[in-house]
Amino acid sequence: MEPTVAEAQQIQRIVSTVLHHINVADKEYNQISISNYDSDLENYLTDLLKEINDKPQKRAYDFHRETTEFFTTLRSFFIELNLNENPLSSNLASRLLDKEVETDDRYGHLGSSGNGHVKKGSFLQFVYRDGTDISYLGVKIEHQTFLDETDFKKKIGLSVANKIYKACKVSFNAEGMPHDVFVFDTNSKPSTYWWKDFLELKEVRNDAHNTRIASQEVIKVVNTIKKDHPVDYTILRNSVIAAFRQQGEMKYDEFIKNIFENYEPEDANLKEKIIRMLDILKKLPEKKKFDTYFKLIPSEVPFKRTKVPLSKEISLTIDDGIQNLDQKIWSEQSACGKKLVVIESPEGFKQFTRKERI
Questions:
Q1: Distance of CA 278 to CAs 197, 222, 253, 333, Å?
Q2: Cα separation of 122 and 93, whole Å?
Q3: Under a CB-based contact definition with an 8 Å cutoff, are residues 321 and 242 in contact?
Q4: Is 162 helix (H, G, I), strand (E, B) or coil?
Q5: What distance in Å separates the CA atoms of residue 80 and residue 89, rounded to the nearest whole number?
Q6: d(CA 76, CA 81)
Q7: What is residue 144's predicted lDDT score, i.e. its pLDDT?
Q8: What is the pTM of this model?
Q9: Closest to 233 measured CA to CA, from 246, 218, 243, 247
Q10: Cα–Cα distance, 356 to 358 (Å, whole number)
Q11: Which run of H or of E encompasses 63?
Q12: Maximum distance among all alpha carbons in the chain?
């Protein structure tokens, strides 16, 4: 049975692939012949393509100019889809080798062994159809050592389960112009030599922009439950701000899981709303234009303090993003029915009249 138009548009199919081994130590690159489409390598390439396309942590980039080697090579790939027949695919592998050698010369002494910074690996280039659209994926995969189960000798190759790679995905419009550039990296931080030196890209959005916009947009979603679920609103708002105020990296998918998916609401009536909130939150990066992976800049979080009215005469000012807020401020109802806000405060304890709880 033939697939429907909608199903056909969802099919990802590799059109052509070219593979080069990059050896920084020997300063050489070699094109490797890929024989059969049904080979284990082809299955590996298909799995790798799916893994990278499904990866939630990515960052948007753009071309510095339309005259860079990478941009002009991509234009030629759209015209000649057979990468094995296109000499510019080897030129790109040569450029990668040059940039990795330069990087190793500058930073090789900083490697854990002191004998090299950039690892030997393979440079895989794909042109594939994503539905009716053409896309390109370039991936540098580090070679890893493994023990062969047949002769129990150490060998070097591509890991199937735990891949270490840097990747760049580019889409083409109908006229063959490259656009929508995304960079992926399994390392904690995208390697500068990969996206800046080799691919000559520039960041579309910096870390300050991502921190500011992402925190604002997530808080807007949290604000929608303020009226009907005030306790959960306070907890979630504080947790979100605390997450954006910490040092380190924002992996947006993990953030959503930790703060929202794993959250047990105080008000049971909020559970269904959280499911709807999750759908909105997951669409925010694309809708509001921020990356799903970036370095946090705590000073860019625009939330400082929250003022909570306790009565006509008294208000409570709370710093945003307090860790373990529910252990420092909570509400109680006394035996005689008084509704209380309790604050653990050794500093403020001696400032007020002491009374026994009744």
A1: 38, 11, 11, 33
A2: 10
A3: yes
A4: coil
A5: 11
A6: 8
A7: 57
A8: 0.76
A9: 218
A10: 6
A11: strand 59-63
A12: 87
Helices (H), 157-206: 192
C-alpha span between 348 and 159 (Å, rounded): 59
pLDDT at 9: 40
Which residue type does 28 have? E
273-289 as b/e: b if 16+ CB within 10 A: bbeebeeebbebbeeee
Say if strands 144-147 and 133-142 run parallel, antiparallel, or are unpaired.
unpaired
Tokens representing 111? 């490697």
Q: What was the pLDDT predicted at 8?
A: 40
If you ran DSSP here, which 8-state letter would residue 228 be given? T
Contacts of 162 (CB under 8 A, 6+ apart): 144
How many angstroms from the chain centroid is the CA of residue 75?
27
DSSP for residue 160: S
Distance CA 340, CA 18 (A): 69
Q: What share of the chain is helix, strand, coil (3-state, %, to 5)?
A: 40, 25, 35
Closest to 35 (Cα-Cα) out of 91, 88, 84, 81: 84
227: left (phi over 0), alpha (psi -120 to 50) or beta: alpha
> pLDDT averaged over consecutive 10-residue blocks of the chain (358 residues)?
43 82 89 67 78 84 94 94 91 94 78 59 89 90 59 52 83 93 83 93 94 97 95 94 94 95 92 94 95 94 88 86 85 85 86 81
What ranges in 108-229 are assigned the alpha helix state H? 192, 207-223
Look at residues 127, 76, 96, 74 and name the one whose alpha carbon lies nearest to residue 22.
Answer: 96
CA angle 290–296–301, rounded 5-degree value: 80
Instruction: Let me know: does 190 contact 196? Beta carbons within 8 Å.
Output: no
The dihedrals phi and psi of 14, each to the nearest 5 degrees, come to: -70, 125
Give the N- to C-terminal CA distance of the chain in Å, as an integer.
76
In the block, tokens 């604050």 appear at: 343
Report which residue type is found at 211: T
Do 93 and 20 form a contact (C-beta atoms < 8 A)? yes
The torsion angle over the Cα atoms of residues 173, 83, 125 and 19, rounded to 10 degrees, is 180
Per the structure block, which two tokens stand in for 209? 């922009």
User: What ranges in 115-163 are assigned the alpha helix state H?
Assistant: none
